[in-house]
Design goal:
The complex is a heterodimer of chains A (449) and B (262). Chain A is 31% helix and 27% strand. A 6-stranded antiparallel β-barrel of chain A has the order 9-10-11-12-13-14. In chain A, strands 3-6-4-5 form a 4-stranded antiparallel sheet. In chain A, strand 4 and strand 5 form a beta hairpin. Chain A starts with a helix and ends with a strand. The model of chain A has no long low-confidence stretch (mean pLDDT 86). In chain B, strands 6-4-7-8-3-9-10-11-12 form a 9-stranded mixed sheet, with helices on both faces. Chain B has a two-stranded antiparallel ribbon with strand order 1-2. The chains are: A alpha+beta (449), B alpha/beta (262).
Chain lengths: 449, 262
């Protein structure tokens, strides 16, 4: 229906442009929320979710209770829910999307679905309707070989999946880690040294698996399941794929030492699991004899160790950002992700440095004596000390990024490079011109070398 | 003179033996971090010795940027892409300001070489510094601290120095807003900002530093220097105002903390 017709019918129609990316994000968030019902949640874009609820329904007093719960939560979010339960993922999906006539049991309901539920190519679908086959039941009554011969192999496969004769695999959102090893204990392990010993064995097994696949791990996660039901996870990350079990164990030891709330076996661990969720290709290497490789490797290991100890955000490298707003021109990124080297704006030869060595973010308010309206500062007071300015250069006028703001406005800053009578160099600015703001304030933004 | 007691004599012998074999000062330096200023470097035998500890004091908090920039520039002058490790506590950003990479690029340094390590407290800072100095493959390790650093006693300082000696790294201790205390450092400097050479229209010029050598294990201390940073040459040079090296002053004591600010 064209928009004009719709408007004619409903005059106060609210119109929002379609944004597929936002829709996808929203579906993803709904899928995240559905993890409360089952760990196996798959997206059926653009508007469906498939939940594998095998063995989960008793937690919600049966299927009806589970559906009530989903219905209630989604209605509260303003969604309209159409649901169906089926023996396979494809059957449930077809029932939810195409069911027109209700049926007392699932098998009958599937047979009563229209052939459109097979979601075939337009040509095959027309051919089916021309042949007088209107429902799945009509089609299922024919021999499968004939269907494949007349309507294509796709039709046969889709039909078999719908009827549950062929497997219909689910592609869950959260995938199980590619490598996971675990140990269950008949007698709970109550001593930490013993648990560490077992962790070493698990790491060894995972490494053997990695070697076989020609991969290296970037992320290792150990989970300790206590016999009283608590579980605790510890994760370590490396900057490069690794197969060095000593390195991984050193990182785990570092991680355990740094815990504010140490790992407590309590009455003992009855299971331990080591997962390697992130793999990367790592070819077998020969040790190089030059020093450079060894040095680079030592540095990577230091980054891994420190990042494990003080958190991945504690060890950072700078990346350049293309903006002229000073405090946004650099972005410190975790060094463990190995951000690629960026190009920094080159300075003009012969010019003194125009940007400070230390930057205050946010800038600090100062009291300034300056000529009105746009003269240079003469003296300023910062941290309870007055500084008399002997030399200055400026203003360097930096406008706000008005094109990124909703109100298309923003205050202009006038930057001055100043030197006081003791030889210290500062970076000051007035926030706003006099015609933008009645009484603009002054700030100190940085210290020069 | 005869020793009054046997154990004391034994101890003295042991100390003499240790001094002859071990000790950071007994081994010649493996290299130098040169400033590019010939007179300065030759006066120190080549520059700041690699594998040792060097301390930079900014007596007044406001001179912190000068001391930090001097340490960083000496380290970043070294050719190659070897990283410079900079350790500080997370509250340093609020106190002295965040390290600003575009500003380092403006000074001619390569900010991609900078690896910033921020720890929650001074205790962790010291622990991380111990790991960092033992890691080969860094241009230098800068440890920035603010105020008194009671955890950094003689033992901790010696441990750091031994780590740096064994790995062949250079440790630059940046002590902002602090007064010098006894330590095992090879050199100890007091740095204040100096008036820069004036550009046209009364504009402030290139960074200028006033350095005073407070202590040097290898020779006499008390020398004062006034240096400019020439970013195009990537070297320090004489500040135009003072001409050559300032006359040797008699050994001076550092101003007590806060005396200048008052």
């Amino acid at each position: 229906m064209p928009l004009a017709d719709a408007r004619a019918q409903v005059p106060d129609l609210a119109i929002v442009p379609h944004d597929p990316v936002l829709d996808q994000n929203w579906l993803d968030r709904l899928a995240q929320g559905c993890a409360r019902y089952t760990p196996l949640v798959a997206l059926d874009s653009p508007d469906g979710l498939i939940l594998d609820i095998t063995g989960c329904t008793h937690l919600f007093d049966g299927e009806a209770g589970l559906i009530d719960d989903i219905d209630r939560r989604l209605t509260r979010l303003g969604m309209t829910l159409r649901h169906a339960l089926g023996p396979t993922a494809d059957a449930a999906r077809a029932l939810a999307r195409y069911q027109t006539r209700p049926a007392p049991e699932e098998a009958t309901a599937i047979r009563r679905l229209p052939v459109a539920a097979l979601e075939l190519e337009a040509e095959a679908a027309t051919a089916l309707v021309r042949a007088g086959l209107k429902t799945i039941g009509d089609l299922a009554a024919r021999p499968m070989a004939n269907i494949a011969a007349r309507f294509g192999a796709d039709a046969a496969t889709a039909l078999r999946r719908l009827l549950g004769d062929a497997p219909s695999p689910l592609d869950p959102r959260i995938t199980p880690p590619p490598i996971a090893t675990e140990r269950r204990f008949a007698e709970p392990v109550a001593s930490m040294p013993h648990a560490t010993q077992i962790l070493t064995e698990l790491v060894g097994e995972a490494i053997a698996d990695l070697t076989e696949r020609g991969k290296g791990g970037r992320h290792f996660r150990a989970t300790f399941f206590r016999s009283d039901g608590l579980a605790r996870s510890l994760a370590v990350e490396t900057g490069h794929p690794t197969r060095d079990s000593n390195l991984v164990m050193r990182l785990f030891a570092e991680r355990m030492d740094g815990l504010r709330d140490p790992l407590d076996p309590g009455f003992g661990f009855d299971m331990m699991r080591l997962a390697v969720p992130r793999l990367e290709a790592l070819a077998a290497t020969q040790l190089k004899l030059e020093g450079g490789e060894v040095r680079a490797a030592a540095m990577t290991e230091l980054v891994d160790r420190l990042a494990t100890r003080i958190g991945r955000g504690g060890v950072r490298k700078f990346a350049a950002v293309d903006t002229h707003i000073p405090e946004q021109a650099q972005l410190p990124l975790p060094a463990i992700d190995a951000p690629p080297p960026t190009s920094w704006p080159a300075s003009e030869p012969g010019e003194p440095p125009l940007r400070p060595f230390y930057l205050f973010d946010p800038p600090q308010v100062i009291e300034v004596i300056a000529e009105v309206p746009d003269g240079p500062p003469h003296r300023f007071r910062w941290r309870r000390t007055t500084h008399a300015i002997r030399r200055y250069e400026g203003p360097e006028r930096i406008a706000s990024e008005w094109w990124r703001r909703k109100d298309n406005a923003g205050l202009t800053r006038d930057y001055y490079r100043v030197e006081d009578d003791r030889g210290r160099r500062y970076w000051l600015f007035r926030h706003g011109l006099y015609d933008e703001k009645p009484d603009p304030r002054w700030y100190i933004h940085g210290l020069f070398a | 003179m005869r020793e009054s007691s046997q154990p004391l004599a034994g101890l003295r012998q042991r100390i003499a033996r240790l001094a002859a074999t071990g000790g950071p000062e007994s081994r010649p330096a493996e290299g130098w971090l040169a400033t590019g200023h010939d007179a300065f470097d030759s006066a120190l035998g080549g520059g700041l010795a690699v594998g040792r500890t060097h301390e930079f004091f900014a007596a007044d908090a406001l001179d912190g940027a000068s001391a930090a920039a001097f340490a960083a520039l000496v380290a970043l002058r070294t050719p190659g892409k070897v990283p410079l490790l900079w350790l500080r506590t997370v509250d340093a950003g609020r106190r002295t300001g965040h390290i600003y990479a575009p500003g380092i690029a403006e000074l001619g340094g390569d900010p991609d070489r900078l690896l910033l390590i921020e720890t929650a407290d001074p205790k962790m800072l010291l622990a991380c510094a111990n790991d960092a100095v033992r890691c080969v493959g860094s241009a230098a390790v800068i440890v920035e601290s603010w105020g008194k650093f009671p955890l950094l006693d003689l033992t901790a300082g010696r441990r750091l120095t031994l780590g740096a000696r064994d790995a062949g790294t250079t440790l630059l201790m940046l002590r902002l807003n602090a007064a010098p205390t006894p330590s095992v450092a090879e050199t100890r400097w007091s740095i204040v900002a100096a008036t820069s050479r004036e550009l046209g229209a009364d504009a402030p010029g290139a960074p200028a530093f006033d350095l005073e050598l407070l202590r040097w294990r290898g020779g006499p201390a008390g020398t004062r220097w006034r240096l400019d940073w020439d970013k195009d040459e990537q070297a320090f040079r004489d500040a135009a105002l003072s001409g050559a090296v300032l006359p040797l002053a008699a050994r001076r004591t550092v101003h007590p903390l806060g005396a200048e600010a008052a």
